[in-house]
Design goal:
The complex is a heterotetramer of chains A (978), B (92), C (189) and D (434).
Chain A (H helix, E strand, L loop, with lengths): L13 E10 L2 E7 L3 H7 L6 E2 L6 E2 L12 E6 L2 E7 L10 E4 L13 H4 L19 H13 L6 E2 L9 E12 L3 H12 L4 E4 L16 H13 L3 E4 L2 E6 L4 E7 L2 H6 L5 E13 L3 E3 L12 E3 H11 L7 E5 L5 H9 L6 E4 L5 H8 L4 E3 L2 E6 L6 E5 L6 E4 L2 E5 L2 E3 L2 H5 L3 E5 L4 E5 L5 E3 L9 H18 L34 E3 L4 E2 H9 L5 H8 L12 H12 L3 H4 L11 E2 H5 L16 H6 L3 E5 L2 E6 L6 H13 L2 E4 L4 E6 L3 H8 L12 E7 L5 E11 L2 E6 L4 H13 L8 E4 L4 E7 L3 H8 L15 E6 L2 E6 L8 E7 L3 H12 L5 E2 L2 H11 L31 H4 L10 E8 L11 E3 L9 E8 L6 E8 L1 H4 L3 E6 L4 E8 L9 H4 L1
Parallel strand pairs in A: 1-7, 9-10, 9-14, 10-11, 14-27, 16-23, 17-18, 17-23, 18-19, 33-43
Antiparallel strand pairs in A: 1-2, 3-4, 5-6, 5-7, 6-8, 12-13, 13-14, 15-24, 20-21, 21-22, 25-26, 28-29, 31-32, 33-39, 34-37, 34-38, 35-36, 36-37, 39-42, 40-41, 41-42, 44-47, 44-49, 45-46, 45-48, 46-47, 48-49
Helix pairs in contact in A: 4-5, 4-11, 7-8, 8-9, 12-13, 12-14, 18-23, 21-22
Chain B lengths: L2 E4 L3 E4 L4 E5 L11 H9 L7 E7 L7 E7 L5 E5 L12
Antiparallel strand pairs in B: 1-2, 3-4, 4-5, 5-6
Chain C lengths: L7 E5 L3 E7 L4 H10 L9 E5 L2 E7 L2 E6 L6 H10 L3 E5 L4 E7 L3 H5 L17 E6 L2 E7 L4 E6 L3 H12 L4 E3 L15
Parallel strand pairs in C: 1-11
Antiparallel strand pairs in C: 1-7, 2-5, 2-6, 3-4, 4-5, 7-10, 8-9, 9-10
Classes of the chains: A alpha+beta (978), B mainly beta (92), C alpha+beta (189), D alpha/beta (434).
The structure holds flavin-adenine dinucleotide, nicotinamide-adenine-dinucleotide (NAD), flavin mononucleotide (FMN) and zinc ion (ZN).
Amino acid sequence: MPGPGRIAAGLLTDAARQLAFRFDGCELRGLAGDTLASALLANGRRLVGRSFKYHRPRGIVTGGPGEPCALVDVLGESGREPNQLATTLALREGLTAVSQNRWPSLALDVLAANDLLGRFLPAGFYYKTFMAPGWAWERIYEPLIRRAAGLGRLDARVGEHAAPAEIVHDHTDVLVVGAGSAGLAAAATLGAAGLRVLLAEQDIVLGGGTLLDPRWSGWRERACRNLADQASVRCLASTAVLGAYGHGVFGALETLGAGERARFGGLRERLRIVRARRVLFTCGATERLIAFPGNDVPGVMLAGAALGYLRRYGVGVGQRPVFFVNNDESYEAVLALSEAGVAVAAVVDPRPSALGATRARQAGIEVIAGAAVTGVRGRHGVRAVRVTAPHAAQREIEADSLLMSGGYTPATALACQLGARLEWQDAIAAFTADLPPSTGCSAGAARGIGGLAAAAADGAAAARRLATELGRPAPYPSDPDLPPDRAVTPLAPLWEVRAPGKAFVDLQNDVTADDVRLACREGYEHVEHMKRYTTCAMASDQGRSGGLVAAAVLAAARGVPLAEVGQVKPRPFAEPVPFAALAGGEVRAHYKPKRRLPLHEWHERAGATFVNTGLWLRPLVYSRSTGWDAVLEEARAVRRSVGVTDVSTLGKIDVQGPDAARFLDFVYANNFSTLALGRARYGIMLREDGMLLDDGTTSRLGPGHFLITTTTVNSAAALEHLEFHLQSVCRELDVVLTDVCDQWAQFAVAGPRAREVVAALVPDLDLSNPAFPFMGAAEARIAGIPGRLFRISFSGELAYELAVPAGSARAAWEAVLGAGQPYGIRPYGLDALNTLRIEKGHVTTAELNGNTSADDLGFRRMLKKSGDFIGRALSAREALGDANRLQLVGVRPVEGTGRLRNGMHLVVPGSGNASLGYITSSTPSTELAGWVGLALLAAGRQRIGTRLIGTSPIHGETTEVEIVSPHMLDPENARVRA
Amino acid sequence: MLRIPCPWCGTRDEIEFRYRGDAGVARPGPEAPLADFTAYVYGRTNPLGWHLEWWLHAGGCRKLLKVERHTLSHEIRWVGAPDQQPPPAAAS
Amino acid sequence: MSGPDSGITLATCPADIVELAAFRDRTADLEQLAAGELVTLAGSGGVAAQGGGITLSVRPGRWLALSPPAPPGASAARWHAAASGRCAVVDLSAALVVFYLTGPAVRELLARACRLDLDPGAFPAGRAAATMMVQVPAILAQLTPGTLLLTPATTAQHLRDWLVATAQPFGLAPAPAVALSELGGESST
Amino acid sequence: MPSPRPSAPASRPERTSSGRYSLWRLVREGLAGQRGWSRAWTKAVPRPRYRVVIVGGGGHGLATAYYLATRHGIRDVAVLERGPLGLGNVGRNTTIIRSNYFQPANVRFYEFSLKLWESLERTLNFNAMVSQRGTLNLFHTEAQRDLFTRRANLMRLEGVDAEALSREAVKALVPLVDLDNGRYPVLGGFLQARGGTVRHDAVAWGYARGASEAGVDIVEHCAVTGLRRDGGRVTGVETTQGFIAADSVCLAVAGYSSELARMAGLELPLETHVLQAFVTEGLKPLIDVVLTYGAGHFYINQSDKGGLVFGGAIDGYNTYGQRGTLPMVEEVTAAAVTLLPALARVKVLRQWGGVMDMTMDGSPIISNTPVAGLILNGGWCYGGFKAIPAGGFTTAHLIAHGTPHPLAAHLDLGRFAAGRTVDERGIGPFPWLH
Ligand SMILES: Cc1cc2nc3c(=O)[nH]c(=O)nc-3n(C[C@H](O)[C@H](O)[C@H](O)COP(=O)(O)OP(=O)(O)OC[C@H]3O[C@@H](n4cnc5c(N)ncnc54)[C@H](O)[C@@H]3O)c2cc1C
Ligand SMILES: NC(=O)c1ccc[n+]([C@@H]2O[C@H](COP(=O)([O-])OP(=O)(O)OC[C@H]3O[C@@H](n4cnc5c(N)ncnc54)[C@H](O)[C@@H]3O)[C@@H](O)[C@H]2O)c1
Ligand SMILES: Cc1cc2nc3c(=O)[nH]c(=O)nc-3n(C[C@H](O)[C@H](O)[C@H](O)COP(=O)(O)O)c2cc1C
Ligand SMILES: [Zn+2]
């Protein structure tokens, strides 16, 4: 067997399959089934890392997810992954790990000097210095501190595509958290009652505490087999419940084994979102440390963890351990190790007598009762242990490891997240949590029940209660052969041994008992203040093994009972979780859906450059070249002859019903009941606060049938706004709203020759002005396709909008191009559309920015004089009439060469820097000389005709501009009516 | 995560809904003075406790729901249609 | 866990889709209309397949009527004529894309995006629901042979790409388009 | 958790001074076994009356007290904190300071705050680790670029630093950024180099120590349960430690503003919403600026301790629950992995929330109220940490003079009825959308 420490057969290890791995460069061997930690211990490795602040040598302290010290960086296919727990990291062939937080090497670490300076670096020292000179913090102190702080170093190798990740949604009657004896018994009971059960176990195997006691292997195997046979029960090993989120929702992280991982294309973890009617916490208890000088020296470990290493991996922690324990559970570890042939040097037990001690003595092990460990010799590893007993000289016992246990603290974090109250239990010197009954309950060690048999019984009992609550009274599966629990002597609380030297309460953040007392002395005496001042319990283990100890030290310093001090608030996540797992698959290229136009492929082939507008991909310009030339060519084609553009992204809402007109009158600031059949009208929607929400044309297709169009950007908001008001304020109205955006492809054909082009497509419609005037709307067969025709114009030219079912978009579009060919028709994109509308003084969301009122944009006359509508009342507020509000104006450079920019501010020449407003949209003009722009300007309308300075400091540009009417092109609207 | 029992669709995750704010405020009639509209738009009781609020089931049936929810425990004790009122038993 | 061999088949199902929405308290009119057209309207939250057509209801007072593809607008026009103002008729044939999923692993696949409880006990054949999947609207309708999935046309590719990618581990068999009539005439609910 | 309220001593504790902090003192104490340190602030027991009672021992309450005592010589002041001080939003925020705003009046207000931050350590003799590492806002559309250009230009006109960065410059500053990130490519960024972060807890402790030193009574575990009025005027506060009379009462209770205002019969234009934050395990230096994503709700910076601190948008429904939720985890981490794919394997450690007073226009309120003598400091939304120095400074001015400080005049309560709302992003009266 590889490694001197491998003294027995392990439950999880396969002695026949050796694996080679590297740690800090040296080749080592372990067994299949090992964790990195068990393999290192088997190889007699004690020193595995350096601590956060003092850079003290550190070893492996626990056997699971609560590990504070044995964090390593792993070098793998995805680069260098920091902060991996050696205690849960499954060993694999070729695994390469390096220790953290040391330079140049683990054995020799320069910053270990901090340890010698330790007396000058107490908790919170940095709040008291580094204050002058002011500039020095960012340049000198902070970089030093930041480099020293932090644990692992990230050096990720990022692929082109998102690494596989997935979120799975689960539903169950009862979520059972933890598969120890309590959880297994509970799941069996619930399953027997026919309830859907999800049993989540963080460990790679089910069993919990039963894995540590061979007498239980038979029971465990039967229990697992029985569960596997129950259709309504799902058992998930390697699945840690991360957080409890209320309404029966839990997050859980499933870590995939090699097989699943391969099947799911390299998927490493899977986030499960579980919805459960009830939860049963059988998540056991975590062992806690004891604070004594040197309790951080490599070789000092939790006793329960040592038992775990022996049973699970057949690894003996050290050849000559001393135990320092205050509870009988830990004697299981004492006896197991000695039975396995390990020479236990001695057991130090603060209690004068205990059943466990008697059993140990019978096994020929020395137990020093009523005693305490007051120190440890050895820096890179335990060499001897100092023991002080009353009326006895201090002893130094040669040893290579020190196995401690201060007792077990029920795992209450998840219960607390559900609002459980903590209750102090003297018997176990810890808090238990009592859940609001409607959510579920705890059982077994999780509520302080000692002993596997007792826990199993407790789990089954709790399960029966839940089953009854859920209306499925459970049968009584009598469990005859539970191995009996041994009688135990209660533990004697022991938190700290006061003696010279650093006694740690937080092994990762290097917080000592003295730091806690200092915090208290300085007034940081509330447990949450102490935490934040000392950083105790803020490390990656969240103070699992030391948090309560720190609280106890604080209680002693304050002279109040620990029950009064309480413990720091637990939060998700129960275990640190990779971003990738939380994010799931909707990242990077899949971050948001791509909303594609019915003609997306056509635009692509036509060489369009696309732009993101919300989810939409829209053709910006039919050219790959950025710059204005291509844009102006498209725009000029419209001004001179004819162009066609795809406006299918506009929101389209179908409105039907007897009260449709009344509804529109209420949601629009202008009138629609007066709109004639077959006509369209431009409308503005306000918010109740009087600001513009959206604008667009609405057409009347029937007496009780309208079609609303909204801006692309606001379409979702507008639909929601309408649905909300229809179902609340207007709920007496009989109206049906339907989003028909995806049903219709819509194209604008614009330009002096638009009529000829469209006429060719709609032979059976007379397009002459009298027959189909500006703002006409009609059902029509367009190139044989049943569709709709509107005579509306955003470009300021004679224009028609054609709507056809999206499935026929291609046919219609090509028909338009065909009909337009004689006139040199050109498709134009969003940029050209923008150029055209700016010249015309038409607004878009750049001007409808949520702070502009109808009056600001020159729509005052549109407001209904009579009748209520959304936004009417608050439009009357004094400040909305203020003449100094920002109003819409046009802007043109005085010099033909002057350039405008969006975001340019307008200031009075020579009178300082007070901004009077800013340019919202600008473009080179198709017909006017130079640039034109729209601006929102204080008292803008009064300033028309005056000159201001346009300034863009970040570009270092200024231009003299003239303020003009926003309608810079064809102000008398002759073209649209042509 | 909230799970909202939609009377039409059954209990659904919060992400399917769009919050629409306090359902305790009613829009004043056309003749009401400006002050009433100001209160309607800006005044909120914002209680720490039971709150009557609008949720639009945009990701489901697109119905507007009136929900009575506790703003600290997040318990939902009543869900109804816009024209319904929570039973007096529930009313706080 | 079903193995890769288990398989999922993904097909499109071309159909005309017309939304029939009752006006205020006039659901009766609509049922009358449907009866006239020899169509059974599914119950709320249900789907009913019958005589080559399918109706489903995921919004109170509204039904989606799926029928075999006809020339653009024809199906809607037919309903419109028949309804003559008794209810709102809206053509959504081009607005929604219909996918059809079959195979033992379909529920496992959908559980990776759909937040509904699709357990046969909770979502048996005959049930339909509107929800969200991978950030886009989705209407699920459970038929005995398989699952219908309706989704807006402009984001359908996003959902399709996801279905194809996520189905791989379960073994995806692409299938030719299926006709509505193949989806079992048997009526449910 | 059992109420950790310490058994109140019978007699009032002597006001102790924590003395001056300095490197030399650290050395002396190091040699003397750290015995010489005393409480940073005195744990006061309330007197029956004060000239000014400030409700809320958060950033703004403590800063207000500090400036009242040190700038206006008003020392007869008590800060009443329901729990232990500084565990509200000041103790749970993502610590970003900046002055890049769209409304001129806001730029001036937050810039004044930034100036106060720049000298805070020396003012307070307490190192709050003000770290001007820069705040970088990325943009992904032309429309966003125009908006940020408008803002940056305004800042420059107001004498505040702002610069536009190219894609390349963004990459150089934060190499982890995936410029093309598959969906919404980064087109560039806007940097305020003087923006940065501050060690949040230290802000509360530093102001508390300063105020206590200057004679203010800081009373913890004293919840205000009622506001006593006489006619239209406030006369004092009912508390869990009895009635305390006061000439003026200032509410600085953030998320609880409505609850307190209700005690005076007032309804405020705000709602309480939760904003969440997250932190990863400690890492060696990785990100040197405060970075905000423009195509989704996500921002991130690295604490001096090494944890990546990040957050997103508010949950979007009224709540007083200071807890995190799953949908927000998904939303924020998805944006994180999209913008910074290198973080994929970094482990998120903890998730929490804070409840904030979201106003109807997204801007704060520093104002007199219809109740004489009752002053409101609130409506801080998710941006009130950076405002603590200026908020305290201008609120102290308002209390001392009765009239608003010019820099905060636009933040009055009357603006809603009058239509003078200060809506940074034009969202409208929908707090859950701000
Ligand atoms: C997750 C998160 C991230 C944030 N990030 C930033 C950021 O990056 N930058 C930024 O500028 N801002 C940020 N903010 C906002 C900022 O934290 C707050 O706006 C600001 O701290 C609020 O002011 P405050 O410190 O006075 O509030 P708080 O610290 O909440 O103080 C209010 C105090 O009043 C007390 N109180 C309440 N009721 C009573 C009562 N009845 N009696 C006595 N006392 C009472 C509370 O206990 C609390 O201590 C963030 C907020 C959150 C939650
Ligand atoms: N080291 C030891 O000797 C030891 C340790 C624990 C329990 N025990 C004995 O077992 C008895 C009770 O057994 P039990 O079943 O109540 O507790 P248990 O410790 O046997 O089982 C609890 C299980 O819950 C799992 N778990 C914890 N948090 C989890 C999470 N967030 N998500 C998923 N799984 C999680 C643990 O991995 C463990 O397997 C105890 O009373 C004690 O006597 C002994
Ligand atoms: C800037 C910042 C950094 C933080 N860093 C850590 C950390 O390194 N470790 C940790 O456990 N918590 C960290 N926290 C979270 C706190 O532990 C705590 O969760 C938060 O202050 C909210 O308090 P509460 O969880 O007790 O309600 C940090 C919080 C903030 C605001
Ligand atoms: Zn619904």
